[in-house]
């Protein structure tokens, strides 16, 4: 593209800033790996590994998590809400693809905001994103209780929450790790269960079950309400967090500048098509989810409707494998995140950097994450999802803003193409993400606001009123999440 900007150094404080990375479209050799990259990381991940890791982190069966809640919220337009999310994510994915080429180092949104905007701003973006890692195990505990409760309704909700948290905690305390190959297996199992679910749903629709017929109503109808669609989309954004996780593996990918942008768009494309297809069929079969006995547990009920009790058991069994696999991995990631933040001085070292000498596990951190996960006993599923998305939308917004700051701070040649890809597209991404962020429920905004306030107060103390450098979060975001 003739208007592509010229090569530019991207900041004196950037690791390896002595070299001048080429901007996208230049066609020259990829930027060298920064000299400060951690020596413990090895470039072993190919494109297929990145794609499967992202899909595993997203969990394909997550499409069933929020269906009942969002169907009720949007008045039967879940596929339309997914389309809105996909548009928002694609704009943000474009910005991720820009930034990962400029900064092929780990850290994702935190690193991009730190390098392009300001180190203190970067810390707060990373702090907001940390909330996602800490709350994801809670989501898994809630989902486990909902799905197991559909099969065993006589067992109290709290029993399944405690059991799920206990299993994940024990597995982490003994040092069990899920490798990328296990992630592939879990994705495969989920896809098989989902394909059977889709097949049975289509058969029921063709046979006219529940008066169903194929229609465009799940996408468009006379009673569509923009506020309801945006509220549903704000909840469904949780389904796409996996593509963001892939960007944290920039120092472990063989060819990060090429493969991570490709992986991001492949993940969004595959997952988006899958989510829309499945929810369209479910919405066609049950346009009014209030007819179901349990809106929150709508998916297990639909599984029983289309395939009987036997398929419901298979469906819930397959789903529980995914829930436990994700729960173990997410609790491990959150505990290692706290450990690395303590090790690097971003959190108090005495508490968070302690390792069990026998197992090599940060025991205190695992127990802290388990305690947070137990809040599943007091939080609804839609509230939990909104709380997680609070940090996600902040991270997505600042990734888009980082591209704009790169344009004005570092680019020398600012042709029409550069204005389009470094300003206009990211600006649209900012507006969409802020719009979705403002659509979150009040409780989530309050809790998220408290979390940001705590981070700001801690940063003020740690930096003596912003006079000292912000604590470094590059380590924790990157620390071997998928070893």
UniProtKB/TrEMBL annotation:
Membrane spanning stretches: 50-72, 78-96, 117-143, 155-174, 186-206, 226-250, 262-282, 302-328, 359-378, 390-411, 418-437, 443-461
What Pfam families does the database record attribute to this sequence?
AA_permease
* Coiled-coil positions: none
Its placement in the membrane is given as:
Multi-pass membrane protein
What is this protein identified as?
Amino acid permease
The record's annotation in InterPro entries points to: AA-permease/SLC12A_dom, APC_superfamily
| Organism whose genome encodes this protein | Leucobacter chromiireducens subsp. solipictus
Question: Which part of the chain is the Amino acid permease/ SLC12A domain?
Answer: 49-445
Q: What is its main location?
A: membrane
Q: Could you tell me which residues belong to the region Disordered?
A: 1-34
Where does the UniProt annotation locate this protein? Membrane
Which keywords annotate this record?
A: Membrane, Transmembrane, Transmembrane helix
């Amino acid at each position: 593209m003739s208007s592509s900007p010229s090569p530019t150094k991207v900041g004196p404080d950037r690791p390896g800033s002595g070299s001048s990375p080429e901007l996208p479209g230049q066609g020259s050799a990829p930027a060298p790996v920064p000299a400060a990259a951690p020596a413990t990381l090895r470039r072993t991940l190919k494109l297929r590994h990145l794609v499967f890791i992202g899909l595993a982190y997203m969990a394909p069966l997550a499409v069933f998590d929020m269906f009942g809640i969002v169907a009720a919220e949007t008045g039967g337009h879940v596929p339309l809400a997914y389309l809105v999310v996909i548009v928002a994510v694609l704009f943000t994915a474009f910005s991720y693809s820009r930034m990962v080429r400029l900064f092929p180092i780990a850290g994702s949104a935190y690193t991009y905001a730190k390098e392009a905007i300001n180190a203190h701003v970067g810390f707060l973006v990373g702090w907001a994103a940390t909330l996602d890692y800490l709350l994801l195990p809670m989501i898994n505990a809630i989902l486990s209780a909902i799905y197991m409760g559909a099969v065993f309704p006589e067992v109290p909700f709290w029993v399944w929450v405690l059991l799920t948290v206990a299993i994940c905690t024990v597995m982490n305390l003994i040092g069990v790790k899920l490798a990328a190959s296990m992630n592939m297996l879990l994705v495969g199992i989920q896809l098989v269960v989902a394909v059977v679910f889709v097949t049975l749903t289509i058969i029921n629709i063709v046979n006219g079950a529940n008066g169903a017929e194929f229609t465009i109503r799940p996408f468009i109808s006379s009673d569509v309400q923009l506020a309801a669609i945006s509220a549903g989309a704000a909840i469904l954004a949780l389904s796409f967090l996996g593509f963001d996780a892939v960007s944290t593996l920039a120092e472990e990918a063989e060819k990060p500048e090429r493969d991570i942008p490709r992986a991001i768009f492949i993940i969004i494309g595959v997952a988006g098509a899958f989510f829309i297809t499945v929810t369209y069929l479910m919405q066609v079969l049950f346009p009014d989810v209030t007819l179901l006995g349990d809106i929150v547990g709508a998916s297990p009920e639909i599984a029983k409707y289309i395939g009987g009790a036997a398929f419901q058991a298979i469906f819930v069994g397959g789903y529980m494998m995914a829930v436990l696999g994700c729960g173990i991995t997410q609790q491990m990631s959150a505990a290692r995140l706290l450990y690395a933040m303590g090790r690097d001085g971003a959190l108090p070292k005495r508490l968070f950097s302690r390792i069990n000498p026998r197992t090599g596990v940060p025991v205190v951190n695992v127990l802290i994450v388990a305690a947070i996960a137990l809040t599943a006993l007091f939080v609804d599923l839609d509230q939990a999802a909104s709380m997680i998305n609070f940090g996600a939308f902040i991270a997505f917004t600042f990734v888009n803003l980082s591209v704009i700051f790169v344009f004005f701070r570092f680019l020398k040649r600012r042709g029409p193409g550069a204005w389009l890809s470094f300003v206009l597209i990211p600006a649209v991404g900012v507006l969409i993400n802020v719009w979705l962020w403002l659509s979150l429920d009040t409780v989530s905004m309050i809790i998220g606001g408290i979390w940001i306030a705590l981070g700001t107060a801690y940063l003020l103390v740690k930096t003596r009123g912003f006079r000292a450098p912000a604590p470094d979060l590059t380590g924790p975001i990157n620390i071997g999440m998928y070893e």
